[in-house]
Amino acid sequence: MKNNYCVIMAGGVGSRFWPFSTNNRPKQFLDFFGTGKSLLRMTFERFRDVVPVENVYVVTNAAYKDTVKGQLPELSDNQVLLEPMRRNTAPCIAYATYKIRETNAEANIIVVPSDHLITNETEYVRVVKEGLRFVSLNDSILTLGMKPTRPETGYGYIQIGTGGGELRKVKTFTEKPNAEMAKIFYESGEFYWNSGMFLWRADVVVKAFESLLPDVAEKFEAGREYYNTEREQAFIDRIYPLCPNISIDYGIMEKASNVYVMMSDFGWSDLGTWSSLYDLSAKDWDGNAVLKCNAGLYGCQNNIIALPKGKFAVIDGLEGYLVAEEGDVLLICKKDDEAKIRQFVKDAGERYGDKYI
Amino acid sequence: MKNNYCVIMAGGVGSRFWPFSTNNRPKQFLDFFGTGKSLLRMTFERFRDVVPVENVYVVTNAAYKDTVKGQLPELSDNQVLLEPMRRNTAPCIAYATYKIRETNAEANIIVVPSDHLITNETEYVRVVKEGLRFVSLNDSILTLGMKPTRPETGYGYIQIGTGGGELRKVKTFTEKPNAEMAKIFYESGEFYWNSGMFLWRADVVVKAFESLLPDVAEKFEAGREYYNTEREQAFIDRIYPLCPNISIDYGIMEKASNVYVMMSDFGWSDLGTWSSLYDLSAKDWDGNAVLKCNAGLYGCQNNIIALPKGKFAVIDGLEGYLVAEEGDVLLICKKDDEAKIRQFVKDAGERYGDKYI
Question: In the UniProt record, does the keyword Nucleotide-binding occur (chains A, B) (predicted)?
Answer without folding.
Answer: yes
